[in-house]
Structure formats: C-alpha cells, structure tokens
Write a structure and sequence with these properties.
With about 220 residues, the protein is α/β, with parallel strands linked by helices. The protein has a single domain (about 60-220), classed as Rossmann fold (3-Layer(aba) Sandwich), CATH 3.40.50.150. The chain contains six helices and nine strands. The protein has helices at about 5, 60-65, 85-95, 105-120, 160-170, 190-200; strands at about 30-40, 40-50, 75-80, 100-105, 130, 145-150, 175-185, 205-215, 215-220. The strands form two sheets. The protein has a seven-stranded mixed beta sheet, with helices on both faces. The protein is globular and about 45 Å long. The N and C termini lie far apart (about 40 Å).
Length: about 220
C-alpha cells in the first residue's frame, strides 16, 4: 500500500470530525521518524500526521510497554487499536514464537505499522499480521481467540465505548487469557476499576490493577 495513494482520499473528510481513530484523517500529510528505547532495545518508528502521538511515543504507551506481561511461550496476541504499532512490535520482538495481530481503523496508522514491522522485526515480520477494522471487526466469524489482548484505549472517544468493548473481550479470549490496558488516572482510571468490579465481575475471573506510575494505571483482566 503506497502512502501517496492513501492521501488522495483524505480531502473528503469533514475537519470538524477529525480524530486519530478516523479511517481517513483530513490533516496535511507529514512523515516523521522517532526513536525509543523500550525493554532495553532501541526501536525506530515511522509516523505521520493524523496518527496518535506522531511526534513522540506518548508516556502512557511507554509505561504500558515497560510493564505489560509478555508470555514466554508460543501464544496468539493482539495489539488492539495499534496506531503505528509500537505495542505489537515490542510484543513480537519479545515473544518471537508468538503470532501477533495488529489492528486499527486509521489507514495512515496501518501504513506506518507495516513499515515499522519491516524495519524493526525483519526476520520475524511473517508472524506479525496487520488487519484493518474497528476493534474486533476483522475477527468476526473467524473463530480466532487470543491468549493476550493489549490496548491503550482511545478514551477521547468516550468512556462508554470502551466499557462496552470490555463486555466483548471474553468472546475473543482463550480460557485463562488476559486483557491488559492502560488508563490515565485523570481520564477515569478509578471509575473504570470500580465499574469493572461491580458490573463485569461475572465475565472475568481476575480484575486487577498491576502497576501505577506517572498517573497511569495498568489493568489486567483474566478470563475464566
């Protein structure tokens, strides 16, 4: 997929509705490269305008990557709403036997993800699968289940959308599979923790906050 071909479609988007989770962001196209040291390895990411945190990797994602649980054994993992692919690429490098899916609805983000997989993973790129679609749309009626799902959720879309998504998660997890995500305290981490324990305790065996740092809470929800 060539970036210049994608860009032709962007002019049709209403700027009032502009958001990085939009399929065709309508902002002037600029390409950037950023480097980040994550889990004791240097990564180089290609980013573009219209993608979340394109000038530097956001602090929430950094905290999440450094403290997320990554299985050592062969697994099927998902970076849900991958942006330019930082979480999924670190997963694929740290768990080389695993198959890692990366999904997003933003076409610019998907282009970046594919480029970043080529550069950062190389020989492991065959086990990193990039799919287009909103949340679990790419997996409907395909029978795919995951050992682990990872996410830095776009809460600017609304807290209700994310909580509704949490209700869907068990359908896509294997037994004892887990859903890990990061929430900024100011964006409602305490409310979400209380809500999950009160409203969704029947869906998950474990609901816990595994780490707190710099105002960010890392959650882990484990299926029965």
């Amino acid at each position: 997929m060539k970036l210049k071909i994608i860009e032709k479609k962007f002019v049709t988007m209403d700027k009032k509705n502009q958001h990085y989770s939009t399929q065709f962001p309508d902002v002037r196209l600029k390409v950037f490269s950023i480097s980040e040291s994550l889990k004791h390895r240097l990564y180089l990411f290609k980013t573009v305008t219209g993608v979340f945190s394109f000038k530097q990797l956001d602090l929430g994602t950094k905290v999440f990557i450094e403290h997320m649980h990554i299985p050592e054994e062969e697994c099927v993992l998902l970076d849900l709403g991958c942006g330019y692919g930082a979480i999924g690429i670190v997963l694929a490098h740290s768990s080389p036997k695993s198959t890692v899916y990366l999904t997003d609805t933003n076409k610019r983000a998907l282009w970046c993800t594919r480029e970043n997989i080529k550069y950062n993973l190389k020989e492991r790129s065959g086990k990193s699968i990039v799919l287009e679609g909103n949340y679990f749309k790419p997996f409907e009626n395909k029978g795919i289940k995951f050992d682990g799902i990872y996410m830095n959720p776009p809460l600017r879309n609304g807290r209700r959308e994310f909580l509704t998504l949490c209700e869907e998660i068990p359908r896509y997890l294997k037994s004892k599979g887990f859903f890990q995500f990061v929430i900024k305290k100011k964006m409602g981490a305490e409310f979400i923790y209380k809500y999950l324990n009160k409203q969704l305790s029947a869906l998950f065996e474990i609901i816990e906050v595994t780490f707190k740092r710099s105002g960010y809470w890392i959650f882990c929800l484990e299926s029965f």
